[in-house]
Amino acid sequence: MYRVGSGGISRLAVAVLAAGMLTGGALASAGAAFADESTPNAGGASATLGGPVDGAFQVAFVKQDGRLQRTIAGLYGMKLDNGGRIQTYCVDIHQPAKNFAKYQEVPWKSSSLGSNPDAGKINWILENSYPNVTDLNALARAAGVDNGRLTAEQAAAGTQVAIWRFSDHLDVTAEDKRSEKLADYLQENAKHSAEPDASLSLNPPAVSGKSGEKLGPVKVSTNAGSVQIATSPGTPAGVKLVDRNGSEVTSAKDGDDVFFDVPAGTPDGTASLTAKASTKVPVGRVFTSGEGDKRSQTQIVAGSTESSVTSTATANWAAKGPIPAAHAVVNCAKGGVDVTVSNEGDKPFAYTVGDKELTVQPGGSETTTVPVGEDEAYKIVVKGANGFEETFEGVRDCETASTTGGGGTTGGGGTTGTPGTGTSASPSGGPSTASTGGSSGSGETTGGDLAQTGGSSATPLIAGIALALVAVGGGAVFFLRKKNAPQAP
Predict the structure, then answer these.
(1) Contacts of 443 by beta carbon, 8 Å cutoff, 6+ apart
(2) Whose CB among 78, 238, 246, 454 lies 3.0–4.6 Å from 98's, allowing a Cys bridge?
(3) How many Cα neighbours within 13 Å face the side chain of 11?
């Protein structure tokens, strides 16, 4: 049962509430990477969801359709696949957070923020509140909090509540008075702040051309001072990475163009480059989930430790005939996935995207938008002459559950307790609630708790949910798997 006193819900009760998504194994080290290492990935930032950060969450209430529902508000910990940690806030309150969900960094346009006119305000909140702002007394004074003091859990809860008001456009109230004061301050003062750049990305992630030429360019985008680049093991002898002047390079910086230099006479084939940097994932970068049908709530970065970030790009070459390359990116505005196929050969390249037959002319490029429903897992196969085949997989995550009718009791802004406990509560700083199905005393009906539908039904952990786990930086291209190199006729 939730034990509530005049000072608000007890820490133990909040811990039990938060533990709803976690099983006994949830504090173990993260599982496998989001995409296996051989998969070209223009963004390179992948992570595994841990759980709410201990001491950085509180209870909040969501008012929707005349009902009040409990949830928790605060920071999550994520573990970066290449080492390091990030802390994140949720930007989809009704979508459950799932144990060990795999995440990929994407640009705003490939997430629910792409069509949200208040996305920039969310970024401002992240830049001007906890944990990016560590002086909690100064933050409390700026917000007009009584006695000018905030705890970490109050600061995290207030920040999350303010974010939800812009990400989901719902009436969300913090249970704690000081948390609510901070949330109101952040909401009222939020301004538009530009989307941060990726920590590391390579674009395009696939190029092609004739042997004897420079293939590319592949542009490097990063917030790191320097990026180490190298061809992957198995690259044919003589193939090297060069700059625009043809000089061999082993490092690059933001904005540099890199080319594959393939000597004339090199047998038709393929190679890849790997870029690696040590940096922090910028505050405001978005991470979406998608591994099969394992959709989990979208997260946005609030803080990061330094970590190793990697990205990859591929090159195909031949002496003659069509020489294709393909990549894909989620396009939320068009309601699907953009599949782009280019051809740097001397003959047209005929190919299929699903059951659609297409042709790209020499030196040309064609983009096809494959319709994909919201929350729908996709597997798009591109096939062409001479054994060319590429497969793109992921989950389209472009809207919040609140905007797609997914609200009510079947989501979860965080981890929650069991619905329908029958506990009455009169929390300070928030709307009063009654037992599930009853009256709130203010004319509203309570809907219990936002149910955590994605977690395990095993016995939840109690209190002391150990922090931290992490993520990385990157772009919007998903899981490109090379199956066969093109061959000239």
Answers:
(1) none
(2) 454
(3) 9
Tens of pLDDT, residues 189-246: 999 999 998 889 999 999 999 999 999 999 999 989 999 999 999 999 999 999 999 9
Residue type (1 letter), 251: S
What is the distance between the terminal CA atoms of the chain, rounded to a whole angstrom? 71
- Tell me how far apart the alpha carbons of residues 38 and 202 are, in angstroms, rounded to a whole number: 15
Q: Which residues have C-beta within 8 Å of that of residue 323, sequence separation ≥ 6?
A: 208, 209, 210, 316, 317, 343, 344, 345, 349, 486, 488
Q: CA 57 to CA 464: how far, in whole Å? A: 12
Per-residue pLDDT tens over the stretch 27-78: 222 222 222 333 334 465 789 998 889 899 999 999 988 899 999 999 999 9
Residue 486 structure tokens? 């093109």
Of the candidates 151, 470, 122, 425, which has an alpha carbon nearest to the alpha carbon of residue 308?
A: 470
**Residue-wise over 361-373: b if at least 16 C-beta within 10 A, else e?**
eeeeebebebebe
Q: How far is CA 25 from the centre of its chain?
A: 23
Residue 302, beta-bridge partner list: none
CA geometry: angle 235, 240, 246, nearest 5 deg: 160
| Nearest to 427, CA basis, from 70, 3, 61, 8 | 8
- Give the Cα separation of 47 and 236 in Å (integer): 32
Integer Cα distance of 287 and 75 in angstroms = 14
Q: Cβ neighbours of residue 341 under 8 Å, at least 6 residues apart?
A: 324, 325, 326, 349, 351, 353, 358, 360, 365, 366, 367, 368, 382, 384
Q: What is the pTM of this model?
A: 0.71
Identify the pLDDT of residue 43: 61
Task: Name the packing angle between helices 152-167 and 177-189 (round to 10°).
Answer: 50
Q: What is the DSSP letter of 321?
A: S
- The span from the CA of 396 to the CA of 213, in Å, is 37
DSSP sequence for 261-295: E--TTPPSEEEEEEEEEEE-PPTT-EEEE-STT--
- Structural element, H or E, at residue 234: none
pLDDT tens readout for residues 275-297: 999 999 999 999 998 764 567 89
Residues 6+ apart with CB under 8 A from 59: 8, 9, 14, 17, 70, 71, 72, 73, 157, 175, 176, 427, 430
At residue 96, the pLDDT reads 86
Cβ atoms within 10 Å, residue 338: 16
